[in-house]
Amino acid sequence: MDEASYWDIPGMTMGVSGVGWVGQSLMLFGSEEQKKKYIPLIASGEPDGVWCTAYSEPNAGSDFANIQTRAVRTDSEYILNGQKIWTSCAHRARWCWLAARTDTNVAKKQHGISLLILDMKSPGITIKPIENFAGVHIFNELFFDNVKVPVANLVGIENRGWYHLMQSLAFERHSMAPQFYGGARRIHEYLVKYVRDNRYKGKPMSEDSIIRHKLAERALELETLKMFAYEITWKISKGIIPVYEAARNKAYCDLVMERLAITGTEILGIYSQVDALSKWARLMGIITRMYMMFPGNSIAAGTDEIQKNIVGQFKLGLPRPY
Length: 322
Ligand SMILES: Cc1cc2nc3c(=O)[nH]c(=O)nc-3n(C[C@H](O)[C@H](O)[C@H](O)COP(=O)(O)OP(=O)(O)OC[C@H]3O[C@@H](n4cnc5c(N)ncnc54)[C@H](O)[C@@H]3O)c2cc1C
Hints:
Layout: H1 2-6, H2 17-29, H3 32-44, E1 51-54, E2 70-73, E3 77-84, E4 95-101, E5 113-119, E6 125-131, E7 137-150, E8 154-155, H4 161-197, E9 199-200, E10 203-204, H5 209-237, H6 244-268, H7 286-299, H8 304-315
Parallel strand pairs: 1-4
Antiparallel strand pairs: 2-3, 3-7, 4-5, 5-8, 6-7, 9-10
The protein binds flavin-adenine dinucleotide.
């Protein structure tokens, strides 16, 4: 992900779910058949290995356990009805990693949720695009009308999906730093070159101490983010399951991206406000794009407030906030 992001290989719009968290989750709690079928597809990078993730609903975002999409079990299949929203890449995905309610008669809303693999070619699925405010089509609404999901597509234990989902979410949050770090490193390199090549008030920008210090601060943050990302990767390789670390990385990644986008706009000045296609665009419009995308990225995979709640609870031992 680090390399793909550095070289600007399409990520979010092409689907990062498979490599980012579905593969790792299947390795942990998928059936042998599921591992055999889906992991090689994910690793292939082919269109048949592209996944989307459908958790959020109009009344269930941070309050994930409030999901209402129903999967009612018959002998050999679940019948799926309901709605999802903000489903990134659903319009390109071959498979969907989906959370649905399989039991409504439960003491706690975290119970009665199951994790299902949905074939996006199944009849009864409607995909409606949502364009974000940068004009990019990443996410969608999904509607399910009596969609049939084979029981073999249940991942892990029925009605215990919440526990699998928390693990999968940790993988997802962990994947954010490597996903953004490489691209941010490249943008930082562009900015360093830009201040070397351009002048302000008759002097090279690279001689301005404020500009130099800001670029140095961003470089330190990017190095720290890389260390955070590689620390988790190393822990996973040793069989250690990260808990609060993924939330830490996600919250820190959001901060680093925000600061880099702001430093970029400060260096480019008014040029940072023009579209990539404008003759006035600088650095191919990437700063404009980054500035418009960072707020959304800080919401994806759970907002900063949710990440900080997790760090407070699992790293600092503070009581649950709700
Ligand atoms: C770019 C992008 C991609 C996304 N892709 C996907 C996807 O592929 N699949 C998917 O299922 N979803 C996706 N989402 C949805 C995302 O997971 C939700 O938007 C997110 O979880 C927040 O939920 P919400 O929008 O309902 O906001 P809300 O949960 O309503 O939150 C509103 C505000 O209240 C704050 N808040 C809520 N609860 C608490 C609390 N307990 N403590 C402190 N503050 C709180 C939040 O931090 C936020 O500031 C995506 C979102 C974005 C922006």
